[in-house]
Specification:
Number of strands of chain A: 25
Largest sheet of chain A: 8 strands, antiparallel
Distance between the termini of chain B: 94 Å
Number of helices of chain B: 19
Strand content of chain B: 25-35%
Shape of chain B: elongated
Oligomer: heterodimer
CATH topology of the largest domain in chain A: DNA Polymerase III, Chain A, domain 2
Chain lengths: 370, 588
C-alpha cells in the first residue's frame, strides 16, 4: 500500500475511530486501526468487538493495499505532524514508512487478516432521525441505565417506535427515564423494539458532537442483531443486547395524590448542597412537604446534618419521602425547563418527575425506606 | 434393697427403645414412610406436614397397598415383605428391609394407616397409639396407602424436648424429600407445609428435568453429564461446571443404588476429581448415582441406612475421581476458568504505559488533610511490621484501576482500593444495623432470582432479619425469589452467589436454639453478612475511580475504627519509604 493524504484529514479520521478502542484488548490487532484503500478513499476502522466504527478520507492512492497500526501511536504521531501531506507506504514485511516533509517514522504494523470485518451500511433499509433530537434523547435517558451485568437487558437503552413515534427508555430497576422523540419522517415497515448497549450510544453522541442545526440527520439501519448509524462519512455498527426489556409501562404510576411544582435549578442546587453532608454512597436525602414549603434535609452519622427550605405551593397534608440524591441530581441536571412537576402518592411508592408543560419526558423514581 | 429380677421386656418398651434408634426426628418418619411408598411401587407421593412434622406427617401414595390380612403384621417388629432369609440382604433392591420402621413410629405417635390393594374393594384402616391398636376397620379409598402420623413423641417428652424449631425440623424434611425426589425423578412428589404448597413436582423423564424443577434454570445450564461404566459399577449423573461453584456442600448428592448416602470417601474423590479448578471454600453441585452390584456394598451398617460400606473403597474412590475428571474434560469447561494471574498483569506494550497512571489534573483537589495516623508498613511478607506517622496525604492517581497511589511526606502509599472501600462499607453497614437504620432502596422493577428451594425457604424463614438488613424478599412460586428492596449500598443485586452466601450464613442460625453459644453464633453470622455485603458494596479491583471517589474513600477510611486492614484481615495499604525506594533503586 502506498498513499498520500493531508495531515488534517488523517487526524480527523483517526480521531473519529480511535476512541472506541478499549484499554485492555483481547487480541493485539484490536489495539490497532485498520487502514485500507477503497476506490479513491482511505478507509479507517477500529473495533472492540462490541462496537465497530469506520470512516473514510480523501486520499491519493499510489498503490492499493492495507495495514493495521497501533491506534494510540498513530494518533500521537499524526497529531504532532505539521499540516502538510503525509505519505504512508507499507513494505511486504508490514513495516510502515510514514513520511511528512523531512520527517520519517518507521513503525511495525500487523496484517489485516485478523482484523474483524465491520459490516457495510445498507442505505435502503435506513431511516433518518434529526441529530439534535437523537442527541437530546440519549442525554435524557442514558444516565439511568444499569451497570449490573446480572440484569443484562438493563445495561442498554430501549429504542422503540409506538404509533410511528420514536421512544427511548432506560432503567436500572430503581428509576426509569422515558423520552418521546416525536414522529419519524418515514413510516417503518416493522415496529422497532431493540436494546442498544450504552457504549454505542455514547459513541454516537460523540460523533454527532455539538450541533444545533435541526435539519442534519443520522441514518439508522437495523438488522436482526445489529444497529448501524451513519453520520456523514462515518459508520458506527453495534451489536444489540439480546433479551426482553421489562414492561416499563407497568411501573409508571397512573395516579398520584400530591403534585408540586418546583424550580428545577433551585431544587437541583438544594439537593447538591444537602448531599455535601452525606458524601458516601447510599445516603438518602429527605423531602418533606408541608404548608407551602418543601424541606430538603440530610443527616450523616458522625458528620452532621443540613436542611434547606424551598417555597412552593402546597396545601396538602404533611408528606415525607426519602430518595437517593444521585437519582434526583442526574435527572434534574439534564432537564432544561424552568420548572418541574413532582407527582407523589405515598412514601413507599414511585414518584414521577415531569418537565412543566412537556409531555415528551418522564422520570420515575423509587424512594428509599424512611 | 429390693431384688431386681431379669425379665424379657414387654413389646411396647422394646419398640420405644428401638424407635430411638430409627426415629430421631420428624424427618426420620418421613424418610421411613417415603421409602415404604417407593418400595411399594408408587408413581405419585403426596406429603403433608404441619408444625415441622411434630403435629402431622401424612403421606399418600398410589403404590400397591397392603392386603387387609397383613395390615396388623406391618406394625410388628421385624415384619417385612422385603427380605425373608438373611442371604436376601446381599441382593437387596428395596430401600427399606429391617422391618423396624412402622412399629417404631407407631410406638411414639398416633399412627393411622389406610391401605387398599387393587384386588380388594375397600381399604383396611388401622389406628395405633403408643404401640397399641386403638381402632381397626374398613373405609373407602383409592388403591394405595395413606399413613398419618400425629403428635409425634407426645408420649416420650424427653425426646420431644430435643426437637428444634418447626422451621428447622421442616428444613430437615425438605432436604430429605429433595434427596428422594432426585433419586426417584420418575415419581411425582408434592409437598405441603402448614397448608402452603412448597412444591409439586411432575414426574420427569430425565434426571435433568427434575433438577430443573428443584434448583431452577440457572443450575441446569451448568450441568455436565457424568458417565462411567465398569463391570461391577456404573456411575451416572451430573456435576456443575467450575464456574457455577457454591459456598457449601449442601447441593452435593450421592446415591448408591438409589439410596442417599454420605461418605467422606466420596467428598475426597470429588476434591480429587476437580483438582484445583475450584477456588478455596467453593464447592460444585453434584448429583451422582452409583449403581453397584448389591453384593459389593453393605447397607446394613446403621438403622438410618445413611452410611454404607464398600467392599473395595480404593476402587470406588479412584473411579469416582476419574468419572468427574472425564466430565470436566468435555469441551468448553476449562476454557471458562480464568487464569488468576492474568488479571494482575500490567499491560506492558508501549502505547498503554501512559494509561497506567491517571494523574489527577488538578492536584490541589487531590490534596487531603488527614490527621496523623499510624499505618501498617508491609512491603514484603517476611519484613517486620513497623509503624510511622504521616501528615498531608497527596493523591497521585490510580494505578491499573486497582490501587490508589498517594504520597505523604517522603513516603509513597499504595492503597488497595477494594480493601479500603470494603473496610468503609463494613463499618457503615455494621453501624447502621446497630442503629436499626440500614438504608434500603426500593426497586421499581423487582429482581426475580432463580434459586433452589431449600435456599429460598431459608431466606423466607428469616424475612424479619433480612428486612433489618435492608432486604425485602418474597416468594414468587416454584424456584423463584422476588427481591423488592435491597440495601442502598449495593449497586448490584441479582448476584446469585451473593444471595447463596447469605443463605449459608443464615443456615448456621437454624440449630442454635439451645446452644449456650447462641448469642455468639448469632453475632458471628451477622458479622459475616456485614462482611459479605461490604465486599459487594465496595468498589471493585478493576473499577476506574473518579478523583472525587478516591478522596471520599480515603476520607472515610481514615474515619474508620481500623483503617489498616479490610474486614477479612488483609492490609488496606502499604507504604514505601524514601529509604526503601532508594534501596530498591540501589542508590546507596
Amino acid at each position: 500500500m502506498k498513499i498520500v493524504c493531508s495531515q488534517a484529514e488523517l487526524l480527523k479520521g483517526v480521531q473519529s475511530v480511535q476512541s472506541i478502542i478499549s484499554n485492555r484488548v483481547s487480541l493485539p490487532v484490536l489495539a490497532n486501526i485498520l487502514l485500507e484503500t477503497q476506490k479513491d478513499k482511505l478507509k479507517l476502522a477500529a473495533t472492540d468487538l462490541e462496537v465497530g466504527i469506520k470512516t473514510e478520507i480523501p486520499t491519493e492512492i499510489l498503490k492499493e493495499g492495507s495495514i493495521t497500526l497501533p491506534a494510540k501511536m498513530l494518533f500521537d504521531i499524526v497529531r504532532e505532524l505539521p499540516s502538510q501531506d503525509i505519505q504512508i507506504e507499507v513494505t511486504p514485511e508490514y513495516k510502515v514508512i510514514l513520511s511528512c516533509g523531512k520527517i520519517v517514522f518507521k513503525i511495525m504494523g500487523l496484517p489485516k487478516d485478523e482484523f474483524p470485518i465491520i459490516p457495510d451500511f445498507k442505505e435502503e433499509n435506513a431511516f433518518d432521525v434529526s441529530m439534535v433530537t437523537l442527541k437530546k434523547m440519549i442525554q435524557k435517558t442514558i444516565f439511568a441505565i444499569s451497570n449490573d451485568e446480572t440484569r443484562y437487558v438493563l445495561t442498554g437503552v430501549l429504542l422503540q417506535t409506538s404509533n410511528n413515534n420514536l421512544e427511548m427508555v432506560a432503567t436500572d430497576g430503581r428509576r426509569l427515564a422515558y423520552v418521546n422523540g416525536g414522529k419519524l419522517n418515514k413510516g417503518l415497515k416493522n415496529k422497532l423494539d431493540v436494546i442498544i448497549p450504552s457504549k454505542a450510544l455514547r459513541e454516537i453522541n460523540r460523533l454527532i458532537g455539538e450541533i444545533e442545526d435541526e435539519s442534519k440527520t443520522v441514518k439508522i439501519e437495523l438488522t436482526e442483531n445489529q444497529i448501524s448509524y451513519k453520520v456523514g462519512a462515518t459508520i458506527l455498527v453495534s451489536r444489540l443486547i439480546e433479551g426482553k426489556f421489562p414492561n416499563y409501562k407497568q411501573v409508571i404510576p397512573k395516579e398520584h395524590s400530591q403534585e408540586v411544582l418546583l424550580d428545577t435549578a433551585k431544587f437541583l442546587s438544594a439537593i447538591k448542597r444537602m448531599s455535601l453532608i452525606a458524601p458516601e454512597k447510599a445516603e438518602s436525602i429527605k423531602l418533606e412537604l408541608i404548608n407551602n414549603k418543601a424541606i430538603i434535609s440530610s443527616m450523616s452519622q458522625g458528620l452532621g446534618e443540613a436542611q434547606e427550605e424551598l417555597e412552593i405551593e402546597y396545601k396538602g397534608n404533611k408528606f415525607e419521602v426519602a430518595y437517593n440524591p444521585k437519582y434526583l441530581v442526574e435527572v434534574l441536571k439534564n432537564l432544561s425547563t424552568q420548572n418541574i412537576i413532582l407527582e407523589l402518592s405515598n412514601p413507599m411508592s414511585p414518584g414521577v418527575i415531569k418537565p412543566q408543560n412537556n409531555e415528551e419526558y418522564l422520570y420515575v423514581i423509587m424512594p428509599m425506606r424512611l | 434393697m429390693s431384688q431386681r429380677h431379669i425379665q424379657v421386656l414387654p413389646e411396647e418398651v422394646i419398640n420405644k427403645i428401638s424407635a430411638g434408634e430409627v426415629i430421631e426426628r420428624p424427618a426420620s418418619v418421613v424418610k421411613e414412610l417415603l421409602e415404604n411408598s417407593l418400595d411399594a411401587g408408587a408413581t405419585s407421593v403426596d406429603l403433608e406436614i404441619k408444625n415441622g412434622g411434630k403435629k402431622l406427617i401424612r403421606i399418600t401414595d398410589n403404590g400397591q397397598g397392603i392386603p387387609p390380612q397383613e395390615v396388623p403384621l406391618a406394625f410388628q417388629r421385624h415384619a417385612t415383605s422385603k427380605i425373608s432369609v438373611f442371604n436376601d440382604l446381599d441382593m437387596l433392591d428395596t430401600l427399606g428391609f429391617r422391618g423396624e420402621a412402622l412399629p417404631s413410629i407407631a410406638a411414639v405417635s398416633k399412627t393411622t394407616m389406610v391401605t387398599r390393594t387393587a384386588e380388594v374393594l375397600s381399604a383396611a384402616k388401622l389406628v395405633m397409639q403408643g404401640g397399641k391398636v386403638l381402632a381397626q376397620g374398613e373405609e373407602g379409598a383409592k388403591p394405595g396407602t395413606t399413613v398419618s402420623v400425629e403428635d409425634l413423641f407426645a408420649n416420650t417428652p424427653a425426646r420431644l424436648k430435643f426437637l428444634k424449631s418447626d422451621a428447622t425440623e421442616f428444613s430437615h424434611i425438605l432436604n430429605l424429600v429433595t434427596e428422594l425426589a432426585i433419586a426417584n425423578f420418575r415419581v411425582a412428589f408434592s409437598l405441603v407445609n402448614n397448608d402452603r404448597k412448597v412444591f409439586k413436582l411432575a414426574p420427569a423423564q430425565k434426571l435433568e428435568e427434575r433438577l430443573y424443577d428443584l434448583f431452577g434454570r440457572d443450575i441446569q445450564k451448568q450441568l455436565l453429564p457424568v458417565k462411567l461404566d465398569q463391570k461391577f459399577i456404573s456411575i451416572t449423573g451430573y456435576i456443575t461446571a467450575p464456574a457455577a461453584n457454591l459456598s457449601g456442600r449442601n447441593q452435593q448428592y450421592f446415591f448408591v443404588n438409589k439410596r442417599t448416602i454420605h461418605h467422606r470417601l466420596l467428598n475426597h474423590a470429588l476434591t480429587t476429581g476437580y483438582d484445583n479448578l475450584l477456588p478455596a471454600g467453593k464447592y460444585p453441585a453434584v448429583f451422582i448415582f452409583f449403581s453397584i452390584n448389591p453384593e459389593l456394598v453393605d447397607v446394613n451398617v446403621h438403622p438410618a441406612k445413611r452410611e454404607v460400606r464398600f467392599s473395595n473403597e480404593g476402587a470406588i474412590h479412584d473411579l469416582t475421581a476419574k468419572a468427574i475428571r472425564d466430565a470436566l474434560r468435555q469441551p468448553g469447561v476449562i476454557r471458562e476458568m480464568k487464569d488468576p494471574a492474568a488479571s494482575y498483569q500490567l499491560p506492558l506494550d508501549q502505547h498503554s504505559i501512559p494509561a497506567i497512571l491517571h494523574t489527577d489534573t488538578a492536584p490541589e483537589q487531590g490534596l487531603l488533610s488527614v490527621q496523623e495516623q499510624m499505618f501498617l508498613y508491609k512491603a514484603q511478607p517476611q519484613e517486620t511490621v513497623k509503624t510511622t506517622a504521616f501528615g498531608d496525604l497527596k493523591i497521585l492517581g490510580q494505578a491499573d484501576n486497582a490501587y490508589i497511589i498517594a504520597s505523604s511526606g517522603n513516603e509513597l502509599m499504595i492503597i488497595d482500593q477494594h480493601a479500603a472501600s470494603e473496610r468503609v462499607m463494613y463499618e457503615k453497614f455494621k453501624r447502621e444495623f446497630e442503629q436499626k437504620k440500614i438504608q434500603s432502596q426500593k426497586l421499581l422493577i423487582p429482581i426475580t432470582l432463580e434459586i433452589d428451594l431449600p435456599s429460598k425457604n431459608m431466606l423466607l424463614a428469616h424475612g424479619e432479619l433480612m428486612s433489618q438488613l435492608g432486604w425485602e424478599v418474597e416468594d414468587f412460586g416454584a424456584t423463584t425469589l422476588l427481591i423488592r428492596a435491597l440495601p442502598a449500598m449495593l449497586d448490584k443485586a441479582g448476584d446469585r452467589q451473593f444471595i447463596l452466601d447469605i443463605v449459608r450464613e443464615l443456615s448456621r442460625l437454624q440449630d442454635i436454639k439451645d446452644t449456650p453459644a447462641k448469642a455468639e453464633i448469632h453475632q458471628a453470622v451477622l458479622d459475616n453478612i456485614f462482611k459479605l455485603s461490604a465486599c459487594h458494596a465496595a468498589v471493585r479491583f478493576g473499577d476506574e475511580l473518579q478523583p472525587s471517589q478516591i478522596s471520599t474513600i480515603i476520607n472515610s477510611l481514615t474515619n474508620t475504627n481500623n483503617p489498616y486492614t479490610c474486614p477479612h484481615g488483609r492490609p488496606t495499604l502499604i507504604k514505601l519509604s524514601r529509604a526503601e525506594l532508594n534501596k530498591r533503586f540501589e542508590r546507596t
